[in-house]
Write a structure and sequence with these properties.
Elements: E1 2-3, H1 16-26, H2 30-42, H3 46-52, E2 54-55, E3 63-64, H4 67-86, H5 88-95, H6 97-117, H7 121-142, H8 152-156, H9 158-177, H10 184-191, H11 195-203, H12 211-216, H13 220-231, H14 237-257, H15 270-287, H16 290-303, H17 308-336, H18 339-363, H19 368-387, H20 389-400, H21 406-432, H22 444-461, H23 470-478, H24 493-504, H25 508-512, E4 516-517
Antiparallel strand pairs: 1-4, 2-3
Helix pairs in contact: 2-9, 2-16, 4-7, 4-21, 5-6, 5-21, 6-7, 6-10, 6-11, 7-21, 9-10, 9-17, 14-23, 14-24, 15-20, 15-21, 15-22, 16-17, 16-19, 16-21, 17-19, 18-19, 18-20, 18-22, 19-20
């Protein structure tokens, strides 16, 4: 006889309070969408180029921008995010996750003021670096917040939801100001970067600290109150007790397995496999070519021959395609496909979109047909990336690491992701800028190959974690379960937690609707 103990799955409506709290935390990611959309568009805006660029009668917009300045305004943001993500684990260990988000809000406001008020390139560089420091904390800590197993994909995928909302707002604002030739043309879009720190700073007043974080720091009563605030309204008393006991048991077992919490623990024993998988999954965001497309899409389309006005319109359209893709991806992850299948499907569709873009530029360079192909395949890429890899990477990466080391592991992985993004942002202008290699859309050959490499990684190394609690995933890795057997392996921690709940609340098993079954030999 065995007991198949599972915490009951409840609807999004039943978890509306938890969903609202997670959405408040996830709004931090909107900053990335706003900034990427604004900066990517400003580089093609005459008002911005008049201040920070130079006149060039041969350029499509009448102005051009120095490659060094173009590289630095993108790469310094990424460098700042790399540095702050790298120290995220240490900061969370001593000060907590909410304090990290509040600090990020303050840094965000300072960076915005610098960028809006100054016309000095050095000051702009400093503003970009500070904004990057803020973004690193925003992305890291908003993506490791608590959520129930069966809704984790939806709630963590709110990252992509807010990124795309930010992109749409940023694209709409820059489209509205693109024709202005004064400083307000770029100051207004940069002013939208005040939205996130303002709303997040106020919203955090009503958000409890992560229950697992509090448990690990010995604050048991506070942890239980935090879980009650997040999940109490959506579960019966017996189901809530089961979730609480499973969480406590999982953390106790982790503490027994390792007495220390630090960066070196990420590379010891079974943690090494989990750390490398987390690093690899986050790295595939860059490997998919997303940073190149998001950062340079508008500029890239102008170089390909589109007018400034048309390029901005297509930028808004691509952001809307991305938003539709995010919502489709959330539905697929919850109701249709596992994390692994979503990731592999994305690698194939994104690779094909990049390949189509590159082939069109090779076969018919400089033609209207090639330009139309750039537009079409860019749109297809934005839709498929946001539906698949963009939606699934953070849910998957944050599930793969242990609760004990989550801040360290996810922070380091995001730091690696930002380093790779910085490398992409720094090198891409060399390939697409007419002053340098002038590859144009042929640059997409590199990203097509990169996507197919990601497919190999997903297939052979990434296990399926859909529907598993974080404590079950800990047990699976502790037992060194292979990728092939990950989905079907029977864990015991939930059954052990149920026994404890039965001792505290007689009859809980029947109330939860959990039945015994006979394992066949």
């Amino acid at each position: 006889m065995a007991v198949d103990a599972k915490i009951p799955e409840t609807s999004l409506w039943a978890n509306r309070k938890c969903l609202l709290i997670c959405a408040i935390v996830a709004i931090a990611n909107m900053q990335y969408g706003l900034d990427s959309s604004a900066i990517g568009s400003l580089q093609a805006m005459p008002g911005f180029l008049e201040v920070f660029g130079y006149k060039d009668p041969h350029a499509p917009a009448g102005y051009a921008i120095e490659g060094t300045f173009q590289r630095l305004i993108g790469s310094l943001l990424t460098l700042g995010a790399f540095l702050s993500s790298l120290v995220a684990g240490a900061f969370a260990h001593f000060f907590g996750r909410k304090d990290a988000l509040w600090l990020a809000c303050a840094l965000n406001a300072i960076a915005c003021i610098i960028q809006i008020s100054s016309t000095d390139k050095v000051a702009v560089y400093m503003g970009r670096l500070i904004l990057g420091l803020a973004n690193g904390f925003l992305v890291t800590f908003s993506n490791i917040y608590a959520s129930p197993a069966h809704l984790r994909a939806v709630m963590v995928a709110l990252f992509s939801e807010w990124v795309n909302i930010g992109s749409i707002i940023g694209a709409a604002v820059t489209n509205a100001t693109k024709s202005r030739l004064d400083k307000a043309s770029y100051q207004i879009p940069l002013g939208t970067l005040f939205i996130v720190p303002t709303f997040l700073a106020v919203g955090l007043l009503f958000v409890p600290e992560s229950p697992r974080y509090l448990l690990y720091n010995g604050k048991t009563e506070e942890a239980r109150k935090a879980l009650q605030s997040l999940r109490g309204d959506s579960l019966s008393p017996e189901a809530f007790e089961l979730e609480w006991v499973e969480m406590v048991k999982g953390i106790e077992e982790e503490k027994q397995a390792a007495n220390t919490i630090g960066p070196l623990d990420m590379f010891k024993g079974t943690e090494l496999r989990r750390t490398l998988l987390c690093f690899g999954v986050i790295a595939t965001q860059t490997g998919a070519g997303s940073w190149f497309v998001i950062s340079y899409a508008t500029y890239f389309m102008i170089v390909a021959g589109l007018s400034v006005d048309d390029a901005f319109k297509f930028s808004v359209m691509n952001s809307c395609f991305g938003f539709v893709g995010v919502n489709l991806g959330m539905y697929l992850m919850r109701h249709v496909m596992g994390r692994r299948s979503v990731l592999m499907t994305g690698a194939v569709t994104q690779g094909c979109a990049m390949l189509g873009m590159a082939i069109s530029a090779t076969v018919a360079p400089g033609t209207v047909s090639a330009r139309n192909c750039v537009i079409a395949f860019t749109s297809l890429y934005m839709f498929s990336y946001n539906t698949f890899v963009g939606d699934a990477t953070y849910p998957t990466a944050t599930e793969l690491v242990s609760t004990r080391l989550r801040s360290w592991s996810v922070g380091s992985a995001i730091s690696l992701g930002y380093f790779l993004a910085w490398l992409t942002g720094f090198c891409s202008p060399y390939f697409i800028n007419p002053e340098d290699l002038n590859w144009g859309a042929k640059y997409a050959y590199i990203w097509a190959a990169s996507n197919f490499c990601c497919l190999v990684f997903f297939f052979f190394f990434v296990p399926e974690t859909k529907g598993r609690t974080l404590e079950e995933i800990d047990e699976l890795f502790a037992n060194r379960v292979s990728v092939r057997n990950f989905k079907t392996f029977k864990t015991t921690i939930a059954a052990e937690a149920l026994k404890d709940v039965e001792n505290r609340v007689p009859g809980a098993e029947k109330k939860l609707g959990i039945a015994e079954h006979v394992d066949q030999a």
